[in-house]
Structures are given as structure tokens and as C-alpha cells.
Amino acid sequence: MKQGKGKIIVAGGIIGFISALLVKLGNPVNMGICVACFLRDIAGGLGLHGAGNVQYIRPEISGFILGSFIIAKMKGEFKARGGSSPLLRFVLGFFLMIGALVFLGCPLRMILRLANGDLNAVVGLIGYVFGIFIGIQFIKRGFSLGRSVSQPESNGYIMPVFAVGLLVLLFLKPAFLLFSENGPGALKAPALVSLTAGLIIGIILQRTRLCTAGGFRDAILIKDFYFLWGLIGIFVFALIGNLALNPESFKIGFTGQPIAHTDFLWNFLGMVLAGITSALLGGCPLRQTILAGEGDADAVITVLGLMAGAAFAHNFGLAASPSGVGINGKIAVIIGFVVVLGIGYNVIQYNKRIRSRKEDLNTKGGEIHA
Length: 370
Hints:
2 strands; Seleno_YedE; Sulf_transp_TsuA/YedE; transmembrane; membrane
């Protein structure tokens, strides 16, 4: 147990330090790594939304996918699978992104923001854990999106091929791509450095199964703190990295934090929504990206839902800004709660009916046999 705890802390520590290093090399402050933000930037770069300050083909995402793919193939763990309520996963991914963009960051960025002194992330953290707690109540009552089944191997290659395609577009820079000239999308580490960092993190996460939602879920549900130690490792080493590499940007407080707002209620509610959806999906945005690289078509659908949510959020003014959360974003979060909780309730009722039918059939079969 001690040896395992040490390994997961080191694994998390590498991720945390790489995040601080990427900031030093050009990525936005408090956003060395953010899956939600990076998928949003990619959606913008592909022209799926028109927010000119968040458009860039982030190579880190391709690195996560390809790192997971390569190591899964090497270890014999690549397996094409899917068919577990794909449409529901798309919708849950969509609203996960809405919650994240109202908070202005995915759960990983929440930890990294805290490691750079942003106390707004404490509010987000409380909301995220509360959301996971709500999701656990659904799981306890029988929520399940169903089992994945084996699929043709070509299904498993879709996301790795997509990741390679993004890299080709990034380096060739065809005219139809969009690149920010200012704002967060214009802040970036050198592409090859970002890709290398993504590959390393993708390999680590595929081997460790580290997940922000899984860390808090397991701690609450089964009192297993293994993944939580990995999250602590991310925080501690990101904090050390920021103090060593980025002291000029380190600032403890609520106000004046980069790419953040101080609307406590909506920071909280945005991450509650992200927590519920991550728990129901069985993984946070980062975990879904890693699963997509190792052949999980359901995770691919979730990632597509995340990208659709990002495009929708910026096309219709749902995403927050440093000045706060607009009325459209607030309405979207409320709609998200209604839809996501409705999905949870409906799935539980459906699973109860299926179990009841199976029990009736087993009872009748036993009577006939007797």
C-alpha cells in the first residue's frame, strides 16, 4: 500500500510539475493543462465557434490520446469497445462542458488554479466534490449506463487517427484553420514541447488510471484514497513548480486571478454540474480523453459531446468570462441540472424494471423446472 501510494503521488507530481513548466514556456497562467479549455480551443480552431480569443489546435490533447494509445498497444490493453448508452454520454459530456466553462476550467485546472493561489478554485472544489456526492447517490440507487461490448477494431482507431489529423493540421496550418492573435488562445508553449508533454501525461494516466472524479468518488464511496493521493501529488508539485518557475504570476487571493471570475455561486454551481456528470460518466474530461485513446468508443462520444458543448457555449454566450457569468450561462446551468438529474432518475427506473423482469423470468423458470 505504501509503495503504491508513493507511485501515484509521483505520477501526479510529474503531471503537476509539467503543468507549471508549460506555463513557464508560454501556456496561459493557471492553465498549464485544462482539458475543457483545450477542447474549446480546438473547436474554435476548427471553426466550430467564433470566439476569436480561444482558437488554437492544442497539441497537448493529441498527446494525451496518442500517449494512451501507444502504451495501451504496447501493454496489450488496447480494446475496441462501446455501445454503453452513447447518446446519453454525449448529452452528459455536453453539460459537463457547460459547467466547466461557467467555472472557467475543467477539474484538473481547478486543482492547478488552486496551486497558483487562486482561492476561487476552493469554491469550485467544494462544488465539484458535492456534485460527485450527488452522483454517488444515483450510483447507489442503481444508476448505470450499461456495459460496453467488443466492437470492430477500426472503432478503436478513430480517436488516435483524429489526434494525428489534428497534428497534421497544426503543423501545415491550412487557410481554413483559425488561430487566436490575442487572449488565451494566443498563449502557447512551443508545439513540439506541448506534444511531448501530452504524450508523457497520456502514458502516465493510462498506466495509473488517475482521474479527478475517481479520486473523490472512491474516497467518499468506498474509503479508498489511492487516487486522491495522486491528486494531492498534482497539487503539491504544481505548487512547487509555480513557486520555482512562475513566481511572478503566483498570487494568493480571489481577485485579479487570470482567466477566472469571483462569482462564488456560479463557480460553485458550475462545478456541481461538472461533478454530477463526471460521476455518472465514470470519469472526468481528462479520464475520458485517455479512455478514448485506448479504444473506448463511449469515451469518444463523450469527448465529442464536450467539444459540442464548447462550441455551443461560445456561439450562444454561455461561457463565463473574467467579468463573471452572463444570464445565458446561468440559464444553461439550470437547464443542465434538470436534464442531468432527469437522466439519472430515468436510468435508475429503467434499470429497476429490467431487474424486475429478470427476477420474474427466473421465478417462472424455476416453477416450470420444478
